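Researcher: We're teaching a course module on how sequence relates to structure. For the next exercise, students receive a sequence and then see the predicted structure as tokens, so they can try to spot secondary structure elements on their own. Here is the exercise chain.
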Amino acid sequence: MSNQSGSLAGALAACCSPLAEEPLGPARAVELARAFKALGDPARLRLLSLIASHPGGEACVCDVSDGFDLAGPTISHHLKVLREAGLISGERRGTWVYYRADPGALGRLSDLLAIAGSGAAQPPEAASA
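Model: And here is the predicted structure for the students to work with:
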């Protein structure tokens, strides 16, 4: 039931040199912005965190929807956005869908933001310490 956008999944799979090493091209920037935009919503970020940190590495939608002041369809929408961004995958088992974070996609986004050994990107107070 992994319903990922082909272009975004491809962008994450082929990704990426760190931003500090080479600039992104326009097409890659558009594709990656979708994943970061998905993470830019507090509810989606919390959902991803709940799924990723759940024992066994996967969580039923019934396990992650508690604690949100959101209706079921809104939770489903947020999960769909995360799935389409390639950050999670889902598998239907009976009446429930179980979600799993994609550690590869999250790792590639993290690698994209990595700053190689230079102190240039450190805040001034950290560089002078």
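Model: If you want an answer key for the exercise: The helical segments are 6-14, 26-39, 42-53, 61-64, 72-84, 103-112, 124-127. DSSP finds seven helices and three strands in the chain.
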